[in-house]
Every structure is written in structure tokens, then in C-alpha cells.
Amino acid sequence: MRRFSLWLRGRPIVADSILAGLLLLLDALGVGDEHNKVVYLIFSVILPLPLILRRVYPRAVAAAMLVLSLLNTLIGYLIDGRATDHVALIGLGVMLYTLVAYVGRRDGLIFLAFLVLDMTVSVLLLDQPSGGDLAMAGLIYALCWTLAEFNGARHAYDSEVAARLAVADYDRERRAHDAVAAERTRIARELHDVVAHAVSVIIVQADGAKYALRQDPDTAERALATIAGTGREALRELRRTVALLRTEHAPELLPQHGSAGIARLAQMMREAGLAVDLELTGELDDIAPEVSLGVHRIVQESLTNTLRHAGAEPKAVVRVHRRDEDVLVEVVDSGGVPARMSQDADIPGAGMGLVGMRERVAVLGGTMHAGRLGDGRWQVRADLPLRTDAD
């Protein structure tokens, strides 16, 4: 049964078709008490029919249900002088639930106003429904609205949790890539040291052997032995390092630089519940990769800290401005509760964000400031030169 329920959850049209078929069956059972059975059966079929698409086109289906209900009232007035009772009219409550839960309260209120208008027309034309029926209808609509609010809140919570999990996965992948990049940088430095040292020794020994070859053969022989040993050792180190560098990693772990990467990061944070205003000015897609990565990491770490520490309904403004000689990165959030920051200090991986950003900015030859503004907001500001020391 659970598997069938999960199967239906992913196929809303099938589930709503079953609901419409059930209402049709229950409505058709009441045909025996009606004078005009043909008209009754026609409405038994067409009243629940739009419900099949209630979650695909909720507004259109709601309008169709209102029109059909009004037609039922008018045709009943013209034929029998009374409105025909249909069990399928419960679909109006179903549509009220659908609008509130899946579209929004505003659409639900508009639909509820038309429901009141429909009942008012019935009362004025046919003097029905009675007071008891009106009370029952009001109770059903109130119940549908309450259920929609409950399920809507649950769906919103599930969506927020899913978005936060996506941000956590994104952050973990970025950290994994940073760890890989740091290790590869260390290997590259070792490779440079090994090769540079070996080549320097080989050159010096080769020059010495050239001069000592005729006057001092023993010295020349020792120099050549040194050259051979140094070359073999350098070759072994080179093979070991290249073997490590051949390890493949997934392309999706690579950060997406430039304006597109920052926009994607901001959108992910918005989905996690952080209101982000993004201002990008200047050409950001053709700067050096290390500077682009630095900008990306500063924005990422700042927004992650805002999401963790800026309290309820956090907000942040991100400004990335390319100037003539540097890139200005500024992230200002809505401020937070210092006590919460102290509590989060025990979380593994927390508390090192500012240190990591300062180290990255220092490597790039830039300057960084982080602290509270006079109005209580928290600001991270970094100036990264467009040309690094390596250039």
C-alpha cells in the first residue's frame, strides 16, 4: 500500500482521476430520486471531470468548476424550479484546498468570494440551500482551507529542507574540491623543488665535468656519477608525482567561475531561505582564473556565514564590481545574534571561514576587512588586484 501511495504521489493526474471517478460514482448513485435523470447524469459526469487536471491547471479548473456549479443552479431553476443536489459539488471544496495549498492564499480568497456569490445566487433564485446546508458548506470550506494551510506549510518546510541540503551538498563538494586543489598545489610545489634542484645540480656537475675531463678524470667521473644519480632520483620523483596527478575527478566538482557561477551560487542560497540581492558590474568573465575563484569563494563563504549566523529571515547584498586595477567584493548582511555565532563555533568546519578568506586574499595580493557596521549589519569587503604576483 505504501508503494502504491508513493507511486501515486509522483503521478498527480492518475491520483486526481481516481478522485474524480469516485465522486462521479457517488454522485450517480443519487439518480433514482431525481425527476430529470438525463440532466442529472450529465452533470454527474461533467462536474467532477475538471478535477483530473486540478494540480496541472489549478486556476483554469477552479474557473470551470465555478461555471459548472452556476450552470447547475440555473438549469435546475429553469427545469424544476430548484437546484439539483450533487455529491460532486464537493469538488468545489477540493479546488479551494488546491488553490490555497499549491497556488496561494490570494487565489484561494478570490475563489472563496466566487463561492459565496454562487451560494448567494442560489438563495436569491431558489431560496436554497437552507440555513443548515449553508452551515455545512461553510464548515467544509473551512476544513479544506485549514488542511491546505497545514499541507502548504509542510510542503514549504520540505522544500526549505531540500534546498538547505542542496546547499550543504554544494558546500561539501566545494570543500572537497578545495582540498584536492590544495593537495595538487602542494604536489606541484614538490615537483618544482625536485626538478629545479636536480636540474641545477646536473648543470653544475656537467660544467665541472667538462672542465675536469682532461686534467682530472677522476673528478670528471665522480661528476658524471653524480649527474646520473641525480637524474635517476629526479626521474623517480617525477614518475611518482605524475602518477598522483593522473587521478581523475568529476568535472562537476570544478567551480563555475565568472558572473554565471556567482549568479548560480546566489540562486542556491535564495532557495535555502536567504534573501540575496546581487549586483554585478564590469566584465567578470575574462579575469584571471585564480582571481575569479577568489571572488567566488569569498562570496560563497560570506553567504554561508550569513545563512548560519544572521538569525531569522536573513538577508544579504552582494556587490562585485570590476574596476581598472582590481575587483571589489562586498557582502553586507542583515546582522545576527552574537550568541548564536558562539554556539555555532562548536560545529565542525565552522569558525575558519574568515581565516580562510584572509589567507586567500593575502595569496592574491589583496586586502580584506570584515566586521560590524554602525547599524549592526555585518560586512565583508575585499579588494583583489586583477594581476597577481605570479603574473
What secondary-structure arrangement, pairings included, does this model have?
Elements lengths: L1 H8 L2 H17 L8 H10 L11 H22 L10 H14 L1 H22 L4 H85 L1 H29 L12 H14 L3 E7 L7 H21 L5 E8 L3 E8 L4 H7 L8 H11 L3 E6 L5 E8 L6
Parallel strand pairs: 1-2
Antiparallel strand pairs: 2-3, 3-5, 4-5
Helix pairs in contact: 2-3, 4-5, 4-6, 5-6, 5-7, 7-8, 9-10, 10-12
GO molecular function, one term: protein dimerization activity
Protein name: histidine kinase
Pfam families: DUF7134 (PF23539), HATPase_c (PF02518), HisKA_3 (PF07730)
The helix fraction, in percent, is: 55-70%
- Estimate what percentage of residues fall within beta strands: 5-15%
Q: Any idea what the CATH architecture of the largest domain is?
A: 2-Layer Sandwich
Low-pLDDT windows of residues: 249-255, 337-351
Described by the principal axes of the CA atoms, the overall outline is: elongated
Q: How big is the Rg? A: 36 Å
CATH class of the largest domain: Alpha Beta
Instruction: Name the CATH superfamily classification of the largest domain.
Output: Histidine kinase-like ATPase, C-terminal domain
How would you state the average pLDDT, rounded? 79
User: How many distinct beta strands?
Assistant: 5
- Main sheet overview: 5 strands, mixed
Within the largest sheet, what's the order of strands?
A: 1-2-3-5-4
CATH topology of the largest domain: Heat Shock Protein 90
